[in-house]
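U., I forgot to send this yesterday:
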Amino acid sequence: MKQHPELTRDQLARIEATLKRIRCGLGKFDVELSQEPTHFFCPEVRDAN
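Result:
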């Protein structure tokens, strides 16, 4: 990771930890979203059956 001269190592570590939490949260959201029925998010889509 390229260090910015104005940020301390502690600040960079906190930023990195925050980004990891965001990525983890987005990953969980993707899983939850993929389990929802398509018509819930796309009402214009009709089942082919």
